[in-house]
């Protein structure tokens, strides 16, 4: 067998590292402002204050609020893709799906994460361009779920489902609903959610919990 030589990791220069750090600082500040004031209510000045940057410094990275929203959408797409890929693998299907959902719930417990999700959902209904940006995230998650469940059916891991797309929609609605519920119910811990979600998903997929 021929050995494969792995390329050396790419090292960021101090300038690149500083630029990445400043970009992340701006996006984190914007997320906080959007969660607090909404996409419409948050101004570039508010984001500057939250990021502790001058307007000139911020505009070097993002020329507009729309550019910041686009960057957040891209980051969310990358994060969603990384998380949803955990549904693939060789372990029991139910364990993989629950593991993915619990990872999402843990992420949504970060300060402002649920509030930002709620703002994204509301603004997506009012603003078609923002809706299109974040709809891509939802579509990518649905596509992976469809692939994973179709493969599981073909392998005999779960029974045939008459309406797979509707089932996926209900699963997504349940997971998103639980995530948002964390805003109002601080006692809804991950330990309490996990066994209940396992029973719910198993029931929808016709599997044993």
From TrEMBL:
Entry superkingdom: Bacteria
Database matches in Pfam families: TetR_C_6 (PF13977), TetR_N (PF00440)
Annotated DNA-binding residue span(s): 43-62
Domain HTH tetR-type: 20-80
UniProt cross-references to InterPro entries, sorted A to Z: BetI_C, Homeodomain-like_sf, HTH-type_TetR-like_transc_reg, HTH_TetR, Tet_transcr_reg_TetR-rel_C_sf
Keyword set, alphabetical order: DNA-binding, Repressor, Transcription, Transcription regulation
Family annotation (PANTHER family): HTH-TYPE TRANSCRIPTIONAL REGULATOR PKSA (PTHR30055:SF226), HTH-TYPE TRANSCRIPTIONAL REGULATOR RUTR (PTHR30055)
Protein name, per record: TetR/AcrR family transcriptional regulator
